[in-house]
């Protein structure tokens, strides 16, 4: 519960002031890094994940798309996320939240905030947009119920033997159905609004 | 009472009639003389059978005339005329009999002289039955009218056919009896009635003659000759019909003017139709078909057939030119010929614009169009059949100019020009060809590729060839501008620099390697290869590279071992073979100096990585030279001692000689694939976007340099492939 409250705070609400001051000179190299990341993301062919800058003027605000991994309860659903890079990226993790409501133990259903270790204390400069997206995708299939942001979801998920693969046993079917119902209640399909 | 009144009325009538007939003669002598006169007159007028000699009778003309006089005085002439005309109708069966007989004969013999006899016979009938002239033109006219009406009513369709044949027979050559025939026609009223048929005879004759004399004869204009022929042949023929009653030639000319211009028009039209149907072949034959084009030009001014010419040529092009079977070079040369031909026919260029449009569109879709044009520009054509006229002055490319509103010589566009017609100032052929595409950049790129290929193909310090290329480039600079060909300039400079550097390196340490050193940045991307030259070749390369790096310490030599040629001298036990081969072949044979038997896989490993097909091709070269032998499949043995050449077990697989330089188009496609990733990425995340937004977003893609038009074309292509959908100017992924 303690962890829950800490992670409820906006992840990048208080960036270190010392770094932002020198951001002017750093901005160029950050932009270059982001450009390279975009290039490698475009060239890689990881299925189900994608991201792109929101507008041509600002490389620091991106929109991402994650498709639910196959054979998980999220299969077939597409989630839109927004990625906001700090000026001192990659020394500080980007702020990421779900724009599509996502019923998931580690995602706040209202704000879309995500509880993922590599986006907080485990962040490292070697991570990239691509690794973040991949982590998020796998998070969908394997939630970390130890630090839930959405206790309801965690509770449903946590019912005995809640490996939510539909195909396993009939008694788990109820569990998955309950979870799926909750998930679909909140889910809004991604619209093609620019 | 009524009876009395009636009686008096009848009496009055009778008296009147009696007085009329009896005139003022005493008693009834007048009446008697009248009845005699009536008898003589009707006897005389009665239509008799001219073929019956018995009936032919002699009349005392004086008494007949006197009789008519009496009848006339009694004012009984109209009644007599009526009787007479009725008699004609009744007797017409005689004529019908004759006509049927003649026509039957004609049907059998198809001899037009029979028809002529029939016409003359009809004239005989007409003359025999005609009343004397003294009766005045009214009666004469009434008679003629009745006779002709009857005649026309009974003439069967067969007569028309025969009549036409008869007219035609008099045309070539103009027959002796023609004037009489025309006269006979005139008497019988046939000329007026069958004017259409007579004219059609003339028309048909003209058509036949034009086709006979002009079809396939394109070297000289025909129109003059045709006009002369008209004057000689057709005019004399139609003279009796259309200029009857002409007193002098002046008069006749005036009469003929109307019909003459009709015939002249028809001649023009026929010739125009003929040339229109031949136009495709005429264009092929250009410039030997100059005459035909001039004819066509003149005809088109008289006959409004421009639309059908365009249609016919477009159809012919579609059928004969714009199909996969036609070589691009052929299409280009036909296009150029079309340009030249239609400029002659229609200087403002409306026809050309209409015809050229489908050709240009088709050429744009062909992948090798640019290559063909560029190859032609640099004189790469083996056929030597250059698109460009050598006499044409070299001039800078002309850009399509917008209309100059201050031009004092401005002419309105021709009336049949479409809305998208662009006044194509008579620009030179190359400008026209280059304008098939929206930008000349493609040409410049292709030019670079081609130049690279040609430069690399030069061996043995053949500096003349380099000089030739330089001359070419100088000429092209005039066309494309200095800046566009800068890269080519660098490539040429590399060639001469290579020679200089090589000279220097050789002076330090003689080597048999003579590399061409090229600046990677300026040359089109060359196909890379993973060949590692084995044995002594590698040693040679290393030595040279060492010398080079002492001479130019800031530069690094990177070998492209698969390019170039190697001059080899193979010393075998019983023979020495000297040959020039590509490096891969040399590498393989070098391996054979280690051991005599190699398998294919070993060989491939020995030179690094190489495509199996290429390897096989290289090995087959040696097999053909009798140096290697394939004992079993994929195992090769060096023939130290020559063996009886076994029939070649394998023929070289038809691997296409890979072009060493990636064609500009391929490069572009490669680039576009990269941009597509970006477009896909942005559309996935941002939903649907308008084109200009995509264009600005592509700023994120490194090295993006396409114009928004090119992007539009690309998106359109992606849409055809079903990758994206576009609606209301918004593009989104198709999923």
Automatic annotation (TrEMBL), chain A:
Region feature (Disordered): 1-26
Domain UBC core: 29-183
Stretches with biased composition (Polar residues): 17-26
One annotated GO molecular function: ATP binding
Keywords, sorted A to Z: ATP-binding, Nucleotide-binding, Transferase, Ubl conjugation pathway
InterPro entries, per the entry: Ub_conjugating_enzyme, UBC, UBQ-conjugating_AS, UBQ-conjugating_enzyme/RWD
One Pfam family here: UQ_con
Entry keyword annotation includes Nucleotide-binding: yes
Active site positions: 115
PROSITE patterns: UBC_1, UBC_2
Family to which the UniProt record says this protein belongs: Belongs to the ubiquitin-conjugating enzyme family.
Protein name: Ubiquitin-conjugating enzyme/RWD-like protein
UniProt organism field: Mycena alexandri
UniProtKB/TrEMBL annotation, chain B:
Gene Ontology BP annotations: cell division; metaphase/anaphase transition of mitotic cell cycle; protein K11-linked ubiquitination; ubiquitin-dependent protein catabolic process
InterPro entries assigned to the protein according to its UniProt record, in alphabetical order: ANAPC2 (IPR044554), ANAPC2_C (IPR014786), Cullin_homology (IPR016158), Cullin_homology_sf (IPR036317), TPR_ANAPC2 (IPR057975), WH-like_DNA-bd_sf (IPR036388), WH_DNA-bd_sf (IPR036390)
GO MF term list: ubiquitin protein ligase binding
UniProt keyword Cell cycle, yes or no: yes
A UniProt-annotated Pfam family: TPR_ANAPC2
Segments forming domain Cullin family profile: 430-608
Residues that span the membrane, as ranges: none
Domain of life: Eukaryota
Keyword terms: Cell cycle, Cell division, Mitosis, Ubl conjugation pathway
One GO CC annotation: anaphase-promoting complex
PANTHER family, A to Z: ANAPHASE-PROMOTING COMPLEX SUBUNIT 2 (PTHR45957)
Family per record: Belongs to the cullin family.
The protein, known as: Anaphase-promoting complex subunit 2
Biological source species: Mycena alexandri
């Amino acid at each position: 519960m303690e962890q829950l409250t800490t992670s409820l705070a906006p992840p990048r609400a208080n960036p270190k002031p010392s770094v932002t001051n020198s951001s002017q000179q750093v901005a160029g190299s950050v932009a270059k890094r982001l450009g390279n990341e975009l290039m490698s993301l475009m060239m890689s062919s990881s299925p189900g994940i994608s991201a792109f800058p929101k507008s041509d003027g600002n490389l620091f605000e991106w929109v991402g798309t994650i498709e639910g991994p196959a054979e998980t309860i999220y299969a077939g659903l597409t989630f839109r996320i927004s990625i906001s890079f700090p000026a001192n990226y990659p020394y500080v993790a980007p702020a990421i939240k779900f724009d599509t409501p996502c019923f998931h133990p580690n995602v706040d259903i209202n704000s879309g905030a995500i509880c993922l270790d590599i986006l907080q204390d485990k962040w490292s400069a070697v991570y990239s947009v691509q690794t973040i997206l991949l982590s998020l995708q796998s998070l969908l299939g394997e939630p970390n119920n130890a630090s839930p942001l959405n206790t309801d979801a965690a509770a449903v998920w946590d019912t005995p033997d809640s490996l939510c693969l539909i195909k396993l046993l009939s008694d788990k079917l109820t569990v998955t159905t309950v979870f799926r119902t909750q998930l679909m209640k909140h889910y809004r399909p991604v619209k093609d609004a620019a | 009472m009524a009876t009395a009144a009636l009686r008096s009325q009848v009496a009055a009538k009778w008296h009147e009639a009696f007085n009329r007939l009896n005139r003022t003669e005493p008693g009834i002598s007048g009446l008697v003389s009248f009845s005699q006169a009536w008898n003589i007159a009707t006897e005389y007028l009665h239509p008799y059978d001219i073929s019956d000699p018995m009936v032919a009778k002699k009349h005392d003309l004086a008494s007949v005339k006197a009789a008519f006089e009496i009848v006339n005085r009694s004012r009984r002439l109209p009644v007599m005329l009526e009787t007479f005309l009725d008699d004609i109708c009744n007797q017409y069966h005689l004529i019908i009999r004759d006509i049927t007989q003649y026509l039957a004969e004609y049907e059998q013999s198809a001899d037009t002289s029979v028809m002529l006899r029939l016409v003359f016979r009809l004239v005989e009938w007409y003359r025999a039955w005609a009343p004397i002239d003294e009766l005045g033109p009214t009666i004469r006219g009434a008679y003629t009218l009745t006779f002709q009406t009857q005649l026309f009513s009974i003439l069967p369709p067969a007569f028309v056919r025969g009549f036409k044949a008869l007219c035609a027979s008099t045309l070539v050559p103009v027959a002796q009896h023609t004037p009489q025939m025309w006269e006979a026609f005139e008497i019988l009223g046939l000329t007026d009635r069958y004017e259409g048929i007579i004219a059609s005879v003339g028309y048909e004759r003209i058509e036949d003659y034009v086709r006979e004399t002009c079809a396939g004869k394109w070297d000289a204009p025909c129109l003059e000759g045709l006009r002369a022929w008209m004057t000689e042949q057709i005019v004399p023929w139609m003279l009796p019909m259309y200029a009857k009653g002409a007193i002098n030639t002046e008069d006749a000319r005036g009469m003929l003017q109307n019909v003459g211009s009709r015939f002249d028009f028809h001649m023009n039209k026929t010739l125009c139709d003929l040339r229109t149907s031949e136009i495709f072949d005429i264009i092929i034959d250009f410039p030997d078909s100059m005459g035909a084009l001039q004819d066509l030009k003149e005809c088109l001014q008289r006959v409004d057939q421009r639309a059908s010419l365009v249609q016919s040529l477009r159809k012919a092009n579609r059928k004969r030119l714009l199909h996969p079977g036609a070589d691009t070079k052929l299409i280009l040369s036909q296009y150029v010929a079309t340009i030249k031909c239609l400029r002659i026919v229609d200087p403002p260029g409306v026809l050309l614009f209409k015809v050229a449009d489908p050709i240009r569109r088709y050429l744009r879709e062909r992948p090798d169009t640019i290559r063909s044009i560029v190859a032609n520009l640099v004189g790469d054509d083996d056929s030597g059949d250059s698109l460009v006229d050598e006499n044409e002055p070299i001039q800078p490319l002309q850009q399509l100019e917008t209309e100059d509103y201050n031009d004092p010589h401005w002419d309105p566009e021709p009336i049949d020009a479409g809305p998208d017609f662009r006044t194509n100032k008579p620009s030179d052929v190359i400008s026209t060809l280059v304008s098939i595409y929206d930008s000349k950049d493609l040409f410049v790129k292709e030019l670079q590729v081609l130049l690279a290929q040609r430069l690399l193909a030069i061996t043995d310090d053949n500096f003349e060839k380099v000089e030739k290329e330089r001359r070419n480039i100088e000429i092209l600079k005039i066309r494309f501008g200095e800046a566009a060909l800068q890269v080519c300039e660098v490539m040429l400079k590399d060639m001469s620099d290579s020679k200089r550097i090589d000279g220097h390196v050789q002076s330090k340490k003689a080597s048999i390697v003579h590399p061409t050193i090229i600046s990677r940045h300026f040359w089109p991307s060359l196909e890379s290869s993973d060949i590692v030259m084995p044995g002594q070749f590698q040693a040679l390369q290393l030595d040279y590279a060492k010398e080079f790096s002492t001479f130019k310490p800031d530069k690094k030599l990177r070998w492209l071992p698969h390019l170039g040629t190697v001059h080899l001298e193979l010393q075998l036990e019983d023979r020495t073979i000297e040959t020039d081969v590509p490096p891969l072949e040399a590498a393989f044979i070098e391996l054979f100096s280690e051991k005599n038997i190699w398998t294919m896989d070993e060989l491939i490993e020995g030179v690094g990585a190489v495509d199996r097909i290429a390897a096989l091709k290289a090995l087959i070269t040696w097999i053909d030279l009798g140096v290697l032998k394939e004992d079993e499949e994929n195992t090769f043995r060096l023939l130290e001692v020559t063996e009886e050449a076994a029939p070649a077990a394998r023929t070289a697989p038809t691997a296409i000689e890979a072009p060493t330089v990636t064609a500009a188009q391929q490069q572009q496609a490669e680039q576009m694939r990269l941009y597509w990733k970006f477009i896909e990425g942005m559309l996935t995340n941002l939903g649907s976007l308008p084109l200009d937004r995509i264009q600005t977003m592509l700023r994120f893609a490194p090295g993006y340099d396409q114009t928004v038009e090119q992007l539009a074309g690309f998106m359109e292509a992606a849409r055809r492939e079903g990758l994206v959908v576009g609606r209301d100017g918004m593009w989104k992924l198709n999923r």
